[in-house]
Automatic annotation (TrEMBL):
UniProtKB keywords: Cell membrane, Membrane, Transmembrane, Transmembrane helix, Transport
Name of the protein in its database record: ABC transporter permease
Residues spanning the membrane: 65-85, 97-117, 187-208, 220-242
Family the entry assigns: Belongs to the binding-protein-dependent transport system permease family.
Subcellular localization, as worded in the UniProt entry: Cell membrane
Gene Ontology terms: biological process: cellular response to sulfur starvation; transmembrane transport
SUPFAM superfamilies: MetI-like
Topology within the bilayer: Multi-pass membrane protein
Residues annotated as domain ABC transmembrane type-1: 58-238
Protein backbone atom coordinates (compact mmCIF):
# COMPACT_ATOMS: atom_id res chain seq x y z
CA UNK A 1 0.00 0.00 0.00
CA UNK A 2 2.84 2.39 0.86
CA UNK A 3 4.50 1.64 -2.49
CA UNK A 4 1.21 2.39 -4.26
CA UNK A 5 1.04 5.89 -2.77
CA UNK A 6 4.74 6.57 -3.36
CA UNK A 7 4.53 5.57 -7.00
CA UNK A 8 1.33 7.57 -7.44
CA UNK A 9 2.97 10.65 -5.92
CA UNK A 10 5.97 10.12 -8.20
CA UNK A 11 3.69 10.02 -11.22
CA UNK A 12 2.02 13.28 -10.18
CA UNK A 13 5.39 14.94 -9.66
CA UNK A 14 6.44 13.80 -13.14
CA UNK A 15 3.25 15.27 -14.58
CA UNK A 16 3.94 18.52 -12.73
CA UNK A 17 7.51 18.63 -14.14
CA UNK A 18 6.23 18.03 -17.69
CA UNK A 19 3.68 20.81 -17.20
CA UNK A 20 6.35 23.23 -15.98
CA UNK A 21 8.78 22.31 -18.74
CA UNK A 22 6.12 22.55 -21.43
CA UNK A 23 5.05 26.00 -20.24
CA UNK A 24 8.66 27.25 -20.25
CA UNK A 25 9.28 25.93 -23.77
CA UNK A 26 6.04 27.39 -25.09
CA UNK A 27 6.78 30.77 -23.47
CA UNK A 28 9.83 31.19 -25.70
CA UNK A 29 7.59 31.60 -28.75
CA UNK A 30 4.34 32.66 -27.03
CA UNK A 31 5.15 34.91 -24.03
CA UNK A 32 1.61 34.79 -22.69
CA UNK A 33 2.14 31.07 -22.05
CA UNK A 34 3.83 32.02 -18.77
CA UNK A 35 0.27 32.38 -17.46
CA UNK A 36 -0.20 28.66 -18.08
CA UNK A 37 2.72 27.70 -15.81
CA UNK A 38 2.06 26.01 -12.46
CA UNK A 39 2.96 29.02 -10.29
CA UNK A 40 0.53 31.38 -12.03
CA UNK A 41 -2.12 28.65 -12.10
CA UNK A 42 -1.91 27.89 -8.38
CA UNK A 43 -1.94 31.59 -7.53
CA UNK A 44 -5.16 31.94 -9.50
CA UNK A 45 -6.48 28.74 -7.92
CA UNK A 46 -5.92 30.19 -4.46
CA UNK A 47 -7.61 33.45 -5.43
CA UNK A 48 -10.61 31.72 -7.00
CA UNK A 49 -11.33 29.80 -3.80
CA UNK A 50 -10.42 32.50 -1.30
CA UNK A 51 -12.65 35.04 -3.09
CA UNK A 52 -15.42 32.51 -3.63
CA UNK A 53 -15.45 33.35 -7.35
CA UNK A 54 -15.40 29.72 -8.47
CA UNK A 55 -17.85 28.28 -5.93
CA UNK A 56 -21.11 29.07 -7.81
CA UNK A 57 -19.66 27.53 -10.97
CA UNK A 58 -18.62 24.34 -9.16
CA UNK A 59 -22.03 24.12 -7.50
CA UNK A 60 -23.83 24.54 -10.83
CA UNK A 61 -21.70 21.85 -12.50
CA UNK A 62 -22.20 19.37 -9.66
CA UNK A 63 -25.95 20.01 -9.70
CA UNK A 64 -26.09 19.27 -13.43
CA UNK A 65 -24.07 16.10 -12.99
CA UNK A 66 -26.38 14.97 -10.16
CA UNK A 67 -29.53 15.58 -12.23
CA UNK A 68 -28.06 14.01 -15.38
CA UNK A 69 -26.78 10.89 -13.60
CA UNK A 70 -29.93 10.64 -11.50
CA UNK A 71 -32.05 10.67 -14.65
CA UNK A 72 -29.77 8.09 -16.26
CA UNK A 73 -30.16 5.85 -13.20
CA UNK A 74 -33.95 6.16 -13.21
CA UNK A 75 -34.05 5.20 -16.90
CA UNK A 76 -31.06 2.88 -17.26
CA UNK A 77 -31.49 0.52 -14.31
CA UNK A 78 -35.16 -0.41 -15.00
CA UNK A 79 -34.36 -0.81 -18.70
CA UNK A 80 -31.38 -3.00 -17.84
CA UNK A 81 -33.55 -5.13 -15.55
CA UNK A 82 -36.15 -5.55 -18.30
CA UNK A 83 -33.53 -6.49 -20.90
CA UNK A 84 -31.82 -8.89 -18.50
CA UNK A 85 -35.02 -10.80 -17.77
CA UNK A 86 -36.45 -10.81 -21.31
CA UNK A 87 -34.41 -12.27 -24.15
CA UNK A 88 -36.96 -11.18 -26.75
CA UNK A 89 -36.95 -7.61 -25.48
CA UNK A 90 -33.15 -7.61 -25.50
CA UNK A 91 -33.06 -8.86 -29.11
CA UNK A 92 -35.63 -6.22 -30.06
CA UNK A 93 -33.82 -3.28 -28.40
CA UNK A 94 -30.13 -4.11 -28.77
CA UNK A 95 -29.63 -2.95 -32.41
CA UNK A 96 -31.36 0.38 -31.74
CA UNK A 97 -29.52 0.93 -28.46
CA UNK A 98 -26.15 0.11 -30.03
CA UNK A 99 -26.84 2.58 -32.84
CA UNK A 100 -27.82 5.36 -30.42
CA UNK A 101 -24.95 4.56 -28.03
CA UNK A 102 -22.37 5.13 -30.76
CA UNK A 103 -23.64 8.62 -31.59
CA UNK A 104 -21.64 11.29 -29.79
CA UNK A 105 -23.90 13.16 -27.34
CA UNK A 106 -22.36 16.42 -28.55
CA UNK A 107 -23.68 15.81 -32.06
CA UNK A 108 -27.18 16.21 -30.64
CA UNK A 109 -26.43 19.69 -29.28
CA UNK A 110 -27.94 21.75 -32.16
CA UNK A 111 -31.09 19.61 -32.21
CA UNK A 112 -31.52 19.68 -28.43
CA UNK A 113 -31.09 23.45 -28.28
CA UNK A 114 -33.65 23.84 -31.07
CA UNK A 115 -36.17 21.65 -29.22
CA UNK A 116 -35.49 22.56 -25.60
CA UNK A 117 -34.02 26.04 -25.90
CA UNK A 118 -30.98 27.23 -23.95
CA UNK A 119 -30.39 26.79 -20.24
CA UNK A 120 -30.15 23.79 -17.94
CA UNK A 121 -32.69 21.52 -19.63
CA UNK A 122 -30.63 20.66 -22.74
CA UNK A 123 -27.57 20.10 -20.53
CA UNK A 124 -29.51 17.67 -18.34
CA UNK A 125 -30.73 15.81 -21.42
CA UNK A 126 -27.27 15.51 -22.97
CA UNK A 127 -25.67 14.33 -19.72
CA UNK A 128 -28.39 11.72 -19.20
CA UNK A 129 -28.14 10.58 -22.83
CA UNK A 130 -24.37 10.25 -22.57
CA UNK A 131 -24.41 8.27 -19.34
CA UNK A 132 -27.46 6.01 -19.61
CA UNK A 133 -25.94 3.37 -21.90
CA UNK A 134 -23.28 2.13 -19.47
CA UNK A 135 -25.97 1.71 -16.82
CA UNK A 136 -28.21 -0.27 -19.18
CA UNK A 137 -25.33 -2.55 -20.20
CA UNK A 138 -24.00 -3.11 -16.67
CA UNK A 139 -27.46 -3.73 -15.19
CA UNK A 140 -28.30 -6.22 -17.93
CA UNK A 141 -25.00 -8.01 -17.31
CA UNK A 142 -25.74 -8.06 -13.58
CA UNK A 143 -29.14 -9.69 -14.09
CA UNK A 144 -27.64 -12.33 -16.37
CA UNK A 145 -24.98 -13.13 -13.75
CA UNK A 146 -27.60 -14.07 -11.12
CA UNK A 147 -27.50 -17.76 -10.29
CA UNK A 148 -30.79 -19.25 -11.62
CA UNK A 149 -30.96 -21.43 -8.49
CA UNK A 150 -31.60 -18.33 -6.39
CA UNK A 151 -34.54 -17.37 -8.58
CA UNK A 152 -35.89 -20.93 -8.43
CA UNK A 153 -35.56 -20.85 -4.65
CA UNK A 154 -37.48 -17.60 -4.57
CA UNK A 155 -40.32 -19.10 -6.62
CA UNK A 156 -40.41 -22.27 -4.51
CA UNK A 157 -40.82 -20.13 -1.38
CA UNK A 158 -43.70 -18.24 -3.05
CA UNK A 159 -41.86 -14.93 -2.78
CA UNK A 160 -43.56 -12.00 -4.43
CA UNK A 161 -41.93 -10.16 -7.33
CA UNK A 162 -41.15 -7.25 -5.00
CA UNK A 163 -39.50 -9.56 -2.45
CA UNK A 164 -37.47 -11.28 -5.19
CA UNK A 165 -36.38 -7.92 -6.54
CA UNK A 166 -35.38 -6.53 -3.14
CA UNK A 167 -33.87 -9.64 -1.57
CA UNK A 168 -32.17 -11.33 -4.54
CA UNK A 169 -31.93 -9.17 -7.65
CA UNK A 170 -30.88 -5.83 -6.16
CA UNK A 171 -28.07 -7.25 -3.96
CA UNK A 172 -26.85 -9.37 -6.89
CA UNK A 173 -26.62 -6.50 -9.37
CA UNK A 174 -25.39 -3.84 -6.94
CA UNK A 175 -21.71 -4.03 -7.89
CA UNK A 176 -22.58 -4.10 -11.59
CA UNK A 177 -24.71 -0.96 -11.27
CA UNK A 178 -21.94 0.81 -9.32
CA UNK A 179 -19.43 -0.13 -12.03
CA UNK A 180 -21.77 1.19 -14.70
CA UNK A 181 -22.34 4.34 -12.65
CA UNK A 182 -18.59 4.88 -12.38
CA UNK A 183 -18.20 4.63 -16.15
CA UNK A 184 -21.25 6.84 -16.68
CA UNK A 185 -19.98 9.48 -14.27
CA UNK A 186 -16.67 9.66 -16.12
CA UNK A 187 -18.44 10.09 -19.45
CA UNK A 188 -20.85 12.69 -18.07
CA UNK A 189 -18.05 14.68 -16.43
CA UNK A 190 -16.13 14.83 -19.72
CA UNK A 191 -19.25 15.81 -21.68
CA UNK A 192 -20.26 18.42 -19.09
CA UNK A 193 -17.74 21.11 -20.05
CA UNK A 194 -18.75 21.46 -23.73
CA UNK A 195 -22.42 21.19 -22.71
CA UNK A 196 -21.96 24.15 -20.37
CA UNK A 197 -20.93 26.24 -23.35
CA UNK A 198 -24.57 25.99 -24.47
CA UNK A 199 -25.97 29.36 -23.45
CA UNK A 200 -25.75 28.96 -19.66
CA UNK A 201 -24.32 31.69 -17.43
CA UNK A 202 -22.63 29.55 -14.77
CA UNK A 203 -20.70 26.31 -14.52
CA UNK A 204 -17.10 25.27 -15.12
CA UNK A 205 -17.58 25.09 -18.89
CA UNK A 206 -19.02 28.60 -18.92
CA UNK A 207 -16.17 29.79 -16.69
CA UNK A 208 -13.58 28.45 -19.15
CA UNK A 209 -15.22 30.39 -21.99
CA UNK A 210 -15.36 33.50 -19.82
CA UNK A 211 -11.66 33.31 -18.88
CA UNK A 212 -10.74 32.80 -22.53
CA UNK A 213 -12.68 35.90 -23.53
CA UNK A 214 -10.99 37.90 -20.74
CA UNK A 215 -7.56 36.47 -21.69
CA UNK A 216 -7.25 35.31 -18.07
CA UNK A 217 -5.26 32.22 -18.95
CA UNK A 218 -3.98 31.50 -15.45
CA UNK A 219 -7.61 31.33 -14.26
CA UNK A 220 -8.43 29.13 -17.25
CA UNK A 221 -5.69 26.69 -16.27
CA UNK A 222 -6.89 26.83 -12.67
CA UNK A 223 -10.36 25.82 -13.90
CA UNK A 224 -8.82 22.92 -15.83
CA UNK A 225 -7.06 21.76 -12.64
CA UNK A 226 -10.32 22.07 -10.69
CA UNK A 227 -12.17 19.98 -13.27
CA UNK A 228 -9.52 17.27 -12.98
CA UNK A 229 -9.52 17.29 -9.18
CA UNK A 230 -13.31 17.16 -8.85
CA UNK A 231 -13.57 14.39 -11.44
CA UNK A 232 -10.86 12.45 -9.60
CA UNK A 233 -12.70 12.93 -6.33
CA UNK A 234 -16.04 11.76 -7.72
CA UNK A 235 -14.43 8.69 -9.26
CA UNK A 236 -12.66 7.94 -5.97
CA UNK A 237 -15.98 8.05 -4.09
CA UNK A 238 -17.51 5.57 -6.51
CA UNK A 239 -14.45 3.30 -6.34
CA UNK A 240 -14.72 3.39 -2.53
CA UNK A 241 -18.42 2.49 -2.71
CA UNK A 242 -17.63 -0.32 -5.17
CA UNK A 243 -14.89 -1.69 -2.90
CA UNK A 244 -17.21 -1.58 0.11
CA UNK A 245 -19.94 -3.31 -1.87
CA UNK A 246 -17.52 -6.00 -3.01
CA UNK A 247 -16.45 -6.73 0.57
CA UNK A 248 -19.98 -7.43 1.76
Amino acid sequence: MKQKYLLGAGGLLSLFAIWQGGALLLAKSVPIATNLAPQATFESLWWLFSSGEIIPHITASLRRIAVGLGTALLVGVPLGLALGFSKKLEMWCTPSFQLLRMISPLSWMPIVVMLLGVGDLPVYFLLAFASVWSLIISTTAGVKSIDPQWLLLSRSMAASKTETLCKIVVPAIGSHVLTGLRVSMGIAWVVLVPCEMLGVNEGLGYFILDTRDRLAYSELMAAVVIIGLIGWGLDSLLRFALAKGGNK
